[in-house]
Design a protein that fits this description.
Elements (H helix, E strand, L loop, with lengths): L7 H18 L23 H22 L6 H5 L7 H4 L2 E2 L8 E2 L3 H16 L3 H12 L4 H17 L5 H14 L6 H14 L5 H4 L5 H8 L2 H4 L1 H8 L4 H4 L5 H10 L35 H10 L6 H15 L5 H8 L5 H7 L3 H24 L3 H16 L9 H27 L9 H13 L4 H15 L4 E2 L2 E3 H22 L15 H11 L11 H18 L1 E6 L2 E6 L1 E8 L2 E8 L1 H9 L40 H12 L4 H11 L3 E3 L1 H11 L27 H37 L9 E3 L5 E3 L10 H5 L1 E3 L3 E2 L1 H16 L6 H10 L1 H9 L14 H16 L7 E2 L2 E5 L3 H10 L2 H6 L11 H18 L3 H6 L5 H11 L5 H12 L8 H22 L1 H18 L1 E3 L16 E3 L5 E3 L6 E6 L4 E6 L8 H30 L5 E3 L2 E5 L3 H16 L3 H12 L3 E8 L3 H17 L5 H15 L4 H9 L3 H6 L13 E7 L25
Antiparallel strand pairs: 1-2, 3-4, 4-8, 5-6, 7-8, 9-12, 10-11, 13-14, 15-22, 16-23, 17-18, 19-20, 21-22, 23-24
């Protein structure tokens, strides 16, 4: 409920002025929808209604122009050539997203610009300059001069790199762009011209070229090292004035070059010819081959991992390096083992004696792995094709009928038919672009012209494989039974083709600028140019959404044309389409679907296609490049923040990146990405043993060929029996599908793990919109379950020491489930079970092995192996452990809420304060609930009497865990109901629901009692989000294509990461494709926000942003201290020897985070960001303010001869405030006398209450936020002394 009050005297004066001043303020409407500022300069000028309406005519014209431009993305390159698209200068000016004050730019024609840019880049990369120029010219009519210069330089760069283009022709193009496009050159343009002159004119005079520019411009020109290139820079370095010209970033490179250039050039090092073969990479002869699930995805995993095999020459170089590294080792036995060829890389690494040797080994392995990484990326789909081909040929040899029973052979047949079609289509596209098509203007060629510039860039053979794999992958995940949504299929295929194109483009990128003929140049300069050649990490790359969908549609349509299945019915064999298009209704919406033939579905069920793993999503054998912008560099092409359909989120984060605000975020991510891992060979052996039995074991799913179904009921059986049978069959089939899917998923993980045994691997991370970090590799990483986590070891080891040995024991106790006891008791628990620990490690296959009874058995077994090895030494503290030891928060979301609210008892129960033993918040809440029920039981409440003896921590835990993240009453009711189901038979479901409702209410009451202040903060967050999502900016104009309520909830974390809630309602648009006309939901960052999601999502999202911030701060602090660090959200990992140091930083960083009043700071941020927003509220129609506002609006309506809109009210107030803040006394006086509807509300004294009853009237008032709830007495510094805060 919102109440506000203002001065009644001002209100009365304002009301009295309405009649007298109305004629004087009508000028304000002149600019309501136009740029006619000159008509509004006089504060007292009276304008006739006819003049007031005149600007609407120009608005209509501008609206038509906008409509025409919005159709650009539906036109082909040839249609764009023949039409002029120019937006008025004012329309090209960038707008803003939720808040103008944030200065985050929203490009008004972003979609159209991205489409034109993609087309232009496609043409210039293939040297179709004449085709590209009209697109460039069109861009000049949509963007500001500064933006156009950037696009023009892309065009010019292609001309500079083209040896067939002369200097004279380059200058002519620049002159033409200046005349026709108003091109304004900059220092990058000068760098392009300089490069062309240096490479084509041997008599080029540098002095003359740099005669006019200022020294600052010369240095700025030479900063474009990616354009100029290494050899051209060496030419400049040789000039007598070089030391004056070169910018600061080139100084060190210049001095290095200057020192080296007079030294004798040494011969190239001869390539080693020996083929030692003693260093093996992938073959794991001592490991049993996994019994694989028959899955295409798995075959692709296996083939892409062949990239880990190294070529003989690379092996020879690496072998030579290793021999040099180990030559000074004192232990001859270890030296012989390393050179024997029987060890993997990790085992070699463990035998090295000094840190210098380990550093040298890591350097040699990094160089060795660079080529292996590239091979792994580019060999992804070849494996699937080879498998299909093999089975196809084997089938032919047996003279078998090609049926859907042999699915791989069937797919190869599709592939063989698809490739020629794609090759033919590619040639048609080339002919069209070259103006050689037989009927250039036919309807078929008009449609082809839309996608032709992109189709020609795709290799038909690889594209055929990609299309088949993507479509087959989607059959189980595409959102439709036995099929997929058409839009999903087209997007998936289009994005996969785009990714393939970008990967190939980067791998074949012209390295001319980064190559040099000078052996004794500057290595620093080479690295500088290579880094610059990777481009701006904050610039977008790739195709627009429309292009990806259209291209995907073309390839899918060709597949649907050739893909057939052979069907036998009653001894008659026919060929039928494997895919067909249909319409389905889902949730009341008409959805286009691509369905699979029933025989194909049956075949797929026999050979699972649950996943198709792309090799670029594998772990990396090389260290990822550090984050320094929005897009990752090198092999990591992912964005910093992973979010779909939220250009606003991307814009805010990119702006923060460009402003240099994200260094702390990069620091945390780089620590996570730079942590090197390897696979635990001992654990893998045990897992593969149980896997190959085919039986279900712990969390390993068993092998099932088909679901085991009960016998069918008789025809004469009761309908209720038949209904129960059908229901049971559906459930059993679903469980079978789930189990098979889980086994297939586990198989992928284990196959990747097997290939990486002995290898060094890394996991680059990125973020979700709240700042939570996730590994980019989705299929095999340490965020998996118990079995997956057990497979990871740190590459580097650390000697345990006394404290490390203690923490290793505590780790085992925690994993075993003995984690509620004090540390000393946990240590004693392990020491009492040391014989069980040793026996588990010695004989893990024993039927009653101790480790199998642990809560997390696989990870527990890993610690057993480690402890056994440690105790084999005379002094176990000297053991070098690679094990990751975990420290987990206690219901971490509640820990942050308790710190925010300062709840004393709540803080104690989530271990923020020191205690002799760890506190259990779930048990404590259960105790409060029991007390509440006891009171009700004394009043003979039937629900309390039944439930009071059935309350334990298990009953309340789900609701306590999720309450902090905004679980609704309905969600909590479902959780409690599930916990109570065992107490109620099937025929008492109504009674179960009643008891669940009663108990849910008391669980909520107990949580609120324990975390009273925290819940007030949760309420404050929700109410603030409600007001923001229902507010409108004073800059809102109905003609700007911006939704009324377009303000998303945005906040900045303490690490300066902007968090934007991506909950908006899109607008529907039609997109014609080769498969169907699609309805696309466009979300452009200026549409209506989804108020319900904005409100419900903000409290949990804000807390998630805090736990993410705490993790990143801890990661960075641990990295600074030389610790290896990893995390799974609120579980932090490091070496056993470093747990004490990490624990200190966990607490220090939490205290640092919460030392400020974060909610007060958030309120201040909101007040700044949304200071120009107005909230639309409903007040009683009988409120005295309503009469005054209605009178004013009625008089405006008479003057304008039309109803007053919300945009009119905002414009009046905006003009009043602009005049009030001007330097013109006449304007100030007019503003002081002016009356607007918003001013009337603002100056009203008395309560203004936001109500939801009938009989209300909507008014605008300045957006105000509730007062921040008072904070409790808990001192967050006490966290530093808490033993069990993280434990």
């Amino acid at each position: 409920m919102l109440r506000t009050s203002l001065k009644s005297s001002s209100y009365r004066r304002s009301r009295a002025l309405v009649q007298r001043l109305l004629p004087q303020i009508q000028y304000a409407y002149i600019n309501t929808r136009s740029e006619s500022k000159t008509l509004a300069q006089s504060a007292v000028a009276v304008s006739p209604v006819s003049r007031l309406l005149e600007p609407l005519k120009s608005e209509r014209t501008e609206s038509n122009a906008k409509h025409s431009i919005s159709k650009l993305t539906q036109k082909s390159f040839s249609e764009i050539e023949q039409t002029e698209f120019t937006a008025p200068a004012a329309e090209r000016q960038p707008g803003y997203y939720s808040s103008k004050g944030d200065n985050v730019i929203r490009q008004p024609f972003a979609r159209e610009i991205n489409y034109l840019k993609s087309l232009m880049e496609s043409f210039v990369s293939d040297q179709y300059y004449e085709k590209a120029y009209p697109l460039l010219k069109t861009l000049s009519g949509l963007v500001t001069p500064e933006e156009f210069t950037k696009f023009a330089n892309i065009y010019l760069e292609a001309l500079v790199q083209d040896e067939k283009v002369s200097v004279r022709e380059l200058e002519q193009v620049i002159d033409k762009m200046q005349r026709e496009c108003h091109f304004e050159s900059n220092n990058r343009t000068r760098a392009l011209r300089l490069t062309k002159y240096l490479e084509t004119d041997p008599k080029f005079d540098l002095d003359e070229f740099f005669r006019i520019p200022k020294i600052e411009d010369i240095r700025s020109t030479l900063s474009n090292v990616d354009i100029i290139g290494v050899d051209n820079l060496y030419t400049i370095f040789d000039h007598p004035k070089a030391q004056t010209w070169i910018p600061s970033e080139l100084k060190e490179s210049y001095h290095e070059y200057d020192l080296n250039k007079n030294k004798e050039i040494v011969e190239d090092t001869k390539k080693l010819q020996e083929k030692d073969g003693s260093i093996r990479s992938l073959e794991k002869d001592d490991l049993s081959e996994l019994e694989a699930v028959d899955s295409f995805g798995l075959q692709i995993v296996r083939h892409s991992l062949l990239g880990l095999e190294a070529s003989p020459d690379k092996i020879a170089v690496f072998t030579s390096d290793i021999k040099e590294i180990i030559k000074d080792m004192t232990n001859e036995e270890s030296k012989q083992k390393i050179t024997s060829g029987k060890l993997n890389y990790f085992e070699m690494y463990q035998l090295l004696e000094t840190q210098e040797q380990r550093d040298q080994f890591n350097h040699a392995l990094a160089n060795f792995n660079l080529d292996r990484q590239k091979q792994m990326e580019i060999r992804g789909v070849e494996g699937a094709k080879e498998k299909w081909k093999h089975e196809y040929e084997e089938t032919k040899k047996r003279d078998s009928i090609m049926s859907t029973k042999n699915l791989n052979a069937q797919l190869y047949e599709w592939y063989q038919k698809l490739v020629p079609l794609l090759q033919k289509e590619r040639q048609e596209c080339l002919d069209l672009i070259d103006d050689k098509a037989t009927n250039q203007k036919s309807s078929e060629n008009k449609e082809r012209a839309v996608y032709a510039p992109f189709f020609v860039k795709i290799d038909p053979e690889k594209a055929a494989m990609t299309t088949i794999l993507e479509v087959m992958k989607l059959q189980s995940t595409g959102g439709i039974s036995n099929g997929m949504r058409a839009l999903t299929a087209l997007q998936s295929v289009g994005k996969a083709l785009e990714y393939d194109y970008i990967t190939q483009k980067l791998s074949k990128k012209d390295l001319k600028r980064t190559q040099t003929s000078k052996h004794k140049g500057s290595r620093l300069l080479l690295n500088l140019v290579r880094n610059a050649a990777e481009g701006d990490p904050n610039e977008d790359f790739g195709w627009s959404q429309d292009i990806s969908i259209r291209l995907g549609a073309v390839f899918v349509s060709f597949l649907m044309e050739v893909a057939k299945v052979r069907v036998s019915r009653h001894t008659v064999e026919t060929e039928q389409s494997a895919f067909f298009h249909s319409i389905q209704y889902i949730g009341g919406q008409r959805i286009g679907a691509i369905k699979l033939h029933s025989d194909l579905v049956k075949s797929i069920n026999r050979s699972s296609l649950d996943s198709c793993v792309q090799p670029q999503h594998m772990p990396m054998p090389v260290k990822p490049k550090d984050w320094d912008g929005y897009y990752g560099r090198g092999q990591v092409m992912s964005p910093l923040v992973r979010v779909r359909d939220s250009p606003e989120t991307a814009a805010y984060v990119k702006t923060a990146a460009r402003n240099g605000n994200l260094d702390q975020v990069y620091a945390g991510l780089n620590v996570l990405g730079n942590t090197a891992w390897t696979v635990n060979k001992d654990i893998f052996k045990v897992i593969s043993h149980y896997w190959n039995t085919g039986k279900e074991f712990l969390d390993i799913p068993g092998v099932l060929d088909k679901p085991i179904l009960p016998p069918k009921p008789e025809r004469s059986d009761d309908p209720s029996i038949k209904y129960k049978y059908r229901k049971l069959v559906t459930q059993l089939k679903s469980e079978f599908s789930t189990m098979r899917s889980q086994r297939c998923d586990a198989n992928y993980k284990l196959e990747i793990a097997r290939a990486f045994i002995g290898e060094k691997l890394y996991f680059p991370h990125n973020l979700d919109f709240r700042g939570r970090a996730y590994p980019i590799s989705p299929h095999f990483n340490h965020l998996g379950g118990d079995m997956t986590r057990s497979l990871f070891l740190f590459w580097d080891g650390k000697e345990l020491g006394e404290r490390g040995l203690r923490w290793l024991k505590i780790q085992l106790a925690n994993l075993y489930g003995f984690d509620k006891a004090p540390f000393d008791e946990r240590v004693k628990f392990v020491e009492d079970n040391l014989q069980n620990v040793f026996e588990s490690a010695k004989n893990p296959y024993s039927e009653d092995a101790w480790w199998k009874k642990a809560d997390k058995p696989w990870q527990a077994l890993g610690v057993c192996f480690d402890l056994r090895r440690a105790y084999k030494l005379p002094d176990p503290t000297k053991y070098v452990s690679h094990m990751a030891v975990h420290q987990d928060g206690t219901c971490n979301g509640l820990q942050h809420y308790a710190a925010l609210g300062g709840d004393l008892e709540g803080a104690q129960q989530v271990n923020l304060a020191r205690a002799d033993r760890p506190q259990d918040v779930y048990a404590y809440v259960a105790g409060i609930v029991r007390e509440l029920l006891e009171k009700d039981a004394q009043k003979n409440n039937k629900y309390a009497l039944f439930l009071k003896d059935k309350i334990n921590r298990k009953v309340v835990k789900p609701t306590v865990m999720t309450n902090v993240y905004g679980v609704t009453y309905i969600g909590a009711l479902a959780q409690v109901r599930k916990q109570l189901e065992d107490y109620f038979p099937d025929n008492q479901r109504d009674s179960l629901q009643e008891h669940a409702r009663y108990l849910t209410t008391h669980v909520f009451a107990a949580i609120r009692q324990l975390f009273e202040n925290a819940h007030l903060i949760q309420d404050w967050l929700g109410e603030s989000a409600r007001r923001i999502s229902k507010s409108v900016s004073i800059d809102y104009k109905e003609s700007d294509n911006v939704a009324l309520h377009s303000s998303a909830v945005i906040w900045t974390t303490p690490l300066n990461l902007p968090c934007v809630q991506p909950y908006r309602k899109g607008t529907s648009e039609s997109l014609k494709t080769a498969v169907q006309t699609l309805t696309i939901n466009r979300i452009d960052g200026a549409g209506m926000v989804d108020g319900r999601k904005q409100v419900a999502g903000f409290p949990p999202n804000f807390v998630h942003s805090l736990d993410a911030t705490h993790m990143m701060m801890t990661a960075a602090a641990c990295g600074e201290r030389g610790l290896k660090f990893a995390s799974v959200h609120d579980s932090f990992w490091t070496h056993a020897a470093d747990v004490d140091t990490m624990n200190e930083q966990i607490r220090e960083q939490f205290v640092k985070l919460h030392s400020s009043n974060l909610i007060s700071l958030l309120k201040e941020e909101f007040e700044i960001r949304y200071k120009d927003n107005y909230q639309l509220i409903k007040i009683s129609s009988k409120h005295p303010l309503v009469k005054s506002i209605k009178e004013l609006k009625q008089q405006w309506t008479k003057q304008l001869n039309r109803p007053i809109t919300l945009g009119d009210e905002l414009y009046m107030e905006r003009t009043r405030l602009e005049f009030l803040n001007s330097d013109d006394p006449q304007k100030i006086k007019a503003a002081q006398d002016m009356v607007t509807t918003i001013k009337l509300a603002h100056e009203y004294e008395g309560e203004i209450e936001d109500v939801n009853d009938r009989g209300t009237y909507e008014i605008l008032i300045p957006l105000k936020f509730p007062e921040v709830p008072p904070k409790g007495e808990f001192d967050v510094n006490r966290v530093k002394d808490s033993l069990y805060f993280f434990s």
